[in-house]
Structure formats: C-alpha cells, structure tokens
Amino acid sequence: MANKIPPLRAQDKLVFLLALVPYLMDRDRVSVAEAAKHFGVPEQQIREAVRLIAVSGIPGETATYQAGDLFDIAWDDFEDNDQIVLTQLVAIDDSPRFSAREASALIAGLQYLSSLPEHADREAIATLTSKLSRGASAAPTAVAVESSALDETLALIRESVAAGTQIEFDYRNSRGESERRRIDPLRVESVDADWYVRGWCHSREDVRTFRLDRISQPAMTTEAITHTAGDVNLPETLFDTSDEDIEVGIEVVPSAIGLLGDYVADDAPRVAARDRVRTTVRVPHFHGLKRLISGLPGVVTVVSPPEAREAVARWAQAGAEQYAEEQ
Amino acid sequence: MPAPKVPNEERLFSLVLALLSTENGLTKSEILSTVQGYRQRFVHSGDNANLERQFERDKDDIRELGVPLETIEPPEQAGNNQNLRYRIPRVDYELPDDIAFSAEESTLLGLAAMVWREGSLSEGSRRAIVKLRSLGIETAEPVLSYAPQVRVRDEAFEPLREAMDRRVLVNFEYLKPGEQTSTTRLVAPLALVQHQGRWHLYAKDPATDTFKTFLLRRMVSGIQRTKKTFDYPTDNATAQALAGLEEVWQSNVALLRVEPGTDAATRLGKRRGAVMHPDCRLEVNFTDLNIFADELASFGPEVVAISPPALRSAVIERLTRTVADHG
C-alpha cells in the first residue's frame, strides 16, 4: 500500500546504515536490487548508503582514519555490476537492539492484532512480545491496545481468499436496507475498533467497502474470484467517494474535528466561527450523515443545506419520540 | 578556507563506530578532535562551543534510537566534566544472539508496525522494521492483504508517553462528565491503553496512593510535566489497566430495545457478549456511560435504552440536544 513516506532524517539514515551493515556482512555478495527489495527502499538509497559505509570507519591508533581502520568494498563489482561485497569490516558485528519506543510500538500493534485469524496461536504472540522486550535497549513504554473483538466473518474471508472463491453475505447499508452481496475480498482494513473489508462487489461491479459488524450470514461460494488485490487500484481513503456526493456545511468544536476522521477532506476549508470551526464534509446521501451527527451531540452542527439539517433533526426527533411514547 | 561539509548521518555513523570500538571510552575532546564530521570543525586550543553543543544534540539523537551511549566518570576525577568518557558497550548495543524471528513472525511484526502508520508511534515502528530487516529474514506474504490502523489523535498522548519514559509526574486539567468545571490532577503516568477505541491513561495518584484511569479526550488542558520522579513498577501496568477497564465493562450492563432488521439490531447484536432476547430486548455491556450514550443516540429511532436510568436519560438528553441544534 502506498503510504506517504516522509523524507529521511539524519537519524533515520543512521538507523538504516546500522541495519544495512550486518545484513551485508551475512551475505558474501548481494545485488543492489536485492538489498533494495529486502529493505523496501529505492535502489539509489542502497547505493548512497554503501558509498558512505565504504569510506567510513574509526579514527584508529593514529587518529587519522588510515586504510586499515575503514570499511572497504569490492569497488569494481559495485561500480560495474551493481553488486555489493564487503571486503573489510570495522566496529560492527551485529544488528542493533530496538529502542524502548520501537519495541513498545510493535508490542502494542501485535496485541491489537491478536484476534486476527493469522494469530490463532496465542502463545506465538506472547513469545514474540518477550523477544521484543529482551531485544530492546530499555524497558518498552507501557502502551497497549485492546484486542479487537472479531467474529467468524474474518476467518471466512481469509478462507475464501486462500481458496480463491467469492464470498457472499447479507449487508445492511446505512439506509437500513439489507441485501445479499457477493464479493471478491481484496483487503481487510481497520481504524481503531472498527473493521472493514474492501472487495470487488459483483452486485455493483465496482470496489466497495463493508463494515464487518454490518455483515451477517456470511458464506463461501464455489464461484471463482475474478479480481485480486494486485489488479484493483484501491483508493487510499476508506470511504467510497463520488462526484455526485453532496457537500454539507458543518460547525464543529475544534477539539472534535479528529472525531470526524476521513469525513473531513484534508483540503476542506476551515474557517473559525465564534468558538467553532466551519468546514465541509462530503456524503453520498443523508443516511450516514444523520447517524454521524446524532452520535456527536453538542459538538457538531449541520448548517447547510437545509435538507441535511432537516434529515438530522428528523432522525433525532424520531429517536426522542420513542421515549415520549413509552412514558 | 571553510572545511568541507560532512553530512549529518556520516558524523553520527562515525560517532557510533568510534564509541563501539573503544573499551575505556573517549573523552569529549578526543571525540571532537578525531571523529569524522567533528574533526573538520575542531579548532585546536580554541573555542569549540558550537561543536560541543552539536555533540550534545548528537548524543540525544543517538540515544533516542536505542543506542546505549554511556557516560563514564573516572572515580579519581569525579566532578570534572572534561574528563567524562563516552562509549557504547557492545553487549547492550547488539541484539542478543538468541533472538531470532521466523518468516511468519516477521510478517506479523510488519503488520504490527503498519498499525501505527500515522501519529507519534509511526517513526518508531518504521525504524523497528528497518532493524528487523537487518536480520535478513525473508517475509512471508500474508494470505489476505491487511491495512490495520490505530489512530493517535489525542494531543495528550505524546506528552504523556514522554513523561512515562522519563518517569515523572504530570499535571493536567480533567473534566469529569456531567461537571461544568475541570479539576487539576497530579498523577504518575503508568500506562497508555486503547479500550473500545478510546485512549486511556492508567495512573497512580501519589496523594491517595490509588490507581485511576482517565480518558485522554477529557484532559482539557495541555499536559504539564513536573520534575518529580516516581519509581512505581510498571511491568504489568498495561495488563492491569486493560483488566480494570474490562472489569468496568463487565459490571455495566445496559438493557436496550432494538428495532428488528435495523442497523442497530445488526451492529449492537454483534457486540462481544451481547444477549438478544426473543422480545427484541438486548443486553449489552459498556465501559463509559457517556460514550455509549453517544453511540446509542446515533442510532436514532432504531434503539431505546431501557436501563440503567442514567443511560436512558443521557440518551434522551443527547437526542433532544441534536433536535434543538438543528431546529
């Protein structure tokens, strides 16, 4: 997945150098292309790092960086064949430990994912966690994420991908309509405690996103899949957007903007209005909007268009009336 | 003639190599006068104040990566800063030999790192993966493609995490639900945990010697770090924090009436531990009454909270508020 890669800082470059040296030491010879693929970086980054390593070393007895105190590589192999061969080593023997922060990030991530079907073996997670703690240079910071509560749907999705067959299920959309859908699962995504599957929907002939907790009666089919993750370009944002989306003006308490997540586009205008921020969200219809706004009472108000305000008011009013009837 | 500029990463790399290679440590003046990147700017018998400041920053940068840069004070010359010696003990720098990862484990760790692709833990998880690649393990392609994500959007997260690393008490203003004014808290931060999609701080109140859990989003001021350190054990802090929240979740049971065939019926019915009775009454556990009331309000007329009474009135209050805001 194409994540935004921030420019490398000197610290990141240092980590890369300290990691690359032991990798090269373990291999008599490796091509620039293979090393780049292994680390998931551009080939140019490998070449620049190797050039730097090849002239680096320790001040040594003379404190003047004599040849014997420096790394060296087989230059001809490197310049002519794009092959890396370390011919002289200095100072470094092994891979570096994780920092407390690095280890804690991985441990918390593992814990969050511990209910995935991949993690059927609970002991494996405990073993990995202990390896990370022992492999850290200081006690990992105490950060943890509750393991997600996932039902059998995800296991079935995984099974269907492994078998290469379509999966079908009842799906109730935000309008409240339920429909049997048949998809080729492409990717499982999550945001905090919410899980989604993105797939090629045979009913819509397009990529669609489904909330796992809105799926019921899932079942594998015998129909072969026609699309795989490799040949479909999945949009970065989880929500399917279209040109026909309606633009809705809202006023939101500044601290609550984060709660709206991807609903507010990065390029949406943000104007201060008294103690609120005025901005816009784009929605395909008001069914999702009325739920979103009613779930953030007092912190977000719809200001335009009037139909959107009305849809929210009617939804909340219908809810309130349920209680009035009961009295 | 100005000295040629040595790139920052080359200076940092050379410093690590030099300090790894010394048994007894190097003094600051030895480092500044001989190590690549410093020596070019070193003025013999002159003022090196800028260079010394550079060295201080470099030490911090290197330590932040989990490299154990040690300071040794020769016993016979205690108190004399100029005679401090610096080194990186190999045994604390290198990943222990017995720590190895299988291809499957490497895949899981890759997923765990992906969880933090935005926010303050993303840098650490990225660096951890570079170090993991250093070991040369091939990564197994997962059967199903995943893009998991945990968001850290609370501004309080990073300052609290740093205070945890430094083991110092923190001050903040906390607004309890239902109260109009916040109160100042002074606590020892022990763990940060995400439960039901919300970040919580697990802390010890030194005044009462009791453990408390705070929602990050109710911290209405910035986090003030104090100089007071604490030495409470934090080994089991995350487990204790999650167990405490789980206990609260267990003890809070709501009785709801859900409209059959609606989004509320599907999603609330799929909650962990939810019990559906034949008369459409649903028993569901919850952790925080106010957060749960927000969620129930979003379902509008699809659900009615029957009990507890406080939850019921909280939902009514929210729905009424939304109607009033959109009238």
From TrEMBL, chain A:
<feature type="domain" description="WCX">
    <location>
        <begin position="246"/>
        <end position="318"/>
    </location>
</feature>
<dbReference type="Pfam" id="PF25583">
    <property type="entry name" value="WCX"/>
</dbReference>
<dbReference type="InterPro" id="IPR026881">
    <property type="entry name" value="WYL_dom"/>
</dbReference>
<dbReference type="InterPro" id="IPR043839">
    <property type="entry name" value="PafC_HTH"/>
</dbReference>
<dbReference type="GO" id="GO:0000502">
    <property type="term" value="C:proteasome complex"/>
</dbReference>
<keyword id="KW-0647">Proteasome</keyword>
<dbReference type="InterPro" id="IPR051534">
    <property type="entry name" value="CBASS_pafABC_assoc_protein"/>
</dbReference>
<dbReference type="InterPro" id="IPR057727">
    <property type="entry name" value="WCX_dom"/>
</dbReference>
<dbReference type="Pfam" id="PF13280">
    <property type="entry name" value="WYL"/>
</dbReference>
<dbReference type="Pfam" id="PF19187">
    <property type="entry name" value="HTH_PafC"/>
</dbReference>
<dbReference type="InterPro" id="IPR028349">
    <property type="entry name" value="PafC-like"/>
</dbReference>
<feature type="domain" description="WYL">
    <location>
        <begin position="152"/>
        <end position="218"/>
    </location>
</feature>
<protein>
    <submittedName>
        <fullName>Proteasome accessory factor C</fullName>
    </submittedName>
</protein>
<feature type="domain" description="PafC HTH">
    <location>
        <begin position="12"/>
        <end position="134"/>
    </location>
</feature>
Automatic annotation (TrEMBL), chain B:
<dbReference type="Pfam" id="PF25583">
    <property type="entry name" value="WCX"/>
</dbReference>
<dbReference type="InterPro" id="IPR057727">
    <property type="entry name" value="WCX_dom"/>
</dbReference>
<feature type="domain" description="WYL">
    <location>
        <begin position="155"/>
        <end position="220"/>
    </location>
</feature>
<protein>
    <submittedName>
        <fullName>Proteasome accessory factor B</fullName>
    </submittedName>
</protein>
<dbReference type="GO" id="GO:0000502">
    <property type="term" value="C:proteasome complex"/>
</dbReference>
<keyword id="KW-0647">Proteasome</keyword>
<dbReference type="InterPro" id="IPR026881">
    <property type="entry name" value="WYL_dom"/>
</dbReference>
<dbReference type="InterPro" id="IPR051534">
    <property type="entry name" value="CBASS_pafABC_assoc_protein"/>
</dbReference>
<dbReference type="Pfam" id="PF13280">
    <property type="entry name" value="WYL"/>
</dbReference>
<feature type="domain" description="WCX">
    <location>
        <begin position="280"/>
        <end position="322"/>
    </location>
</feature>
